[in-house]
Amino acid sequence: MTPTPDGHNGDEEIPARRLEVVAVIVGVIFIGIVLYSLQPWASGEPDPSPSAAAVASASPSQVPTESLPPSPTAPASQQQPQSSTSTSTSTAASAPPSPSPSVSPSPSPSSSRPVVRWRGTITVNGLYDHTDLDKVPPRIARDEPDADIVGDWLKTSIKAAAPGVRVALLPSGTKPGMRACRDAAAAGSDQIEQVQAGDVLCAVTSQGRTAQLRVTYATQLSSRPTVRLAVTVWDPPAS
After folding, report:
1. What is the DSSP string of 151-216?
2. Spatial separation of the C-alpha atoms in residues 172 and 150, rounded to whole Å
3. What's the pTM?
4. Alpha-carbon distance 78 to 83, whole Å?
5. pLDDT in tens, 45-86
């Protein structure tokens, strides 16, 4: 070996330099391992940067607005019908309702038309049945103070029972109305003798009403003749 100027051999310095190089390499490798272990992807954590698949599957609300194309604006020709429709709707809403047709009241019956007060059947038994035709229904009682007609003791007769009452006999089968019956009774008398079935009588009561008396049954008994009458009483027409 060749000795160095300081008295040492050169072969002894070579192993020392090699150890220094190895130490440097080992240190670099160790630092690299440490730096590698500090990386997030090396420790198993997910990559924070979004992947293309995540962006593609994101909902429209999560996609940035800059990536969405602007919505197309409808042409003016398509917007015009909506405007005209809203205008016609507002015009129809503001239009006043059409007036309902007026209904004229139905005419009331004439006040001069005869009105039937009562219609039914009564039986007059002799002189004891005094009959008030002004009552509804007619009242039949012995010695009735307001009686209009009464029977006879021995005959099938009809007589007036109060002043002002008039009775008239019309031809059999006659069907007089209120006015015809009233006129006939006004020209009559205070009694009709011996009536029989089928006879038609007209009377004016003590209160001015008109009555039609149609004989449906008449029989002569020893002391109590029986006369059955179909009666129609009219109220006097309004003046």
Report:
1. --SSSS-EEE-STT-EEEEE-TT----HHHHHHHHHTSBSEE-S--TT-EEEEE-TTS-EEEEEEE
2. 21
3. 0.54
4. 10
5. 444 444 444 333 444 344 344 444 444 444 444 444 444 444
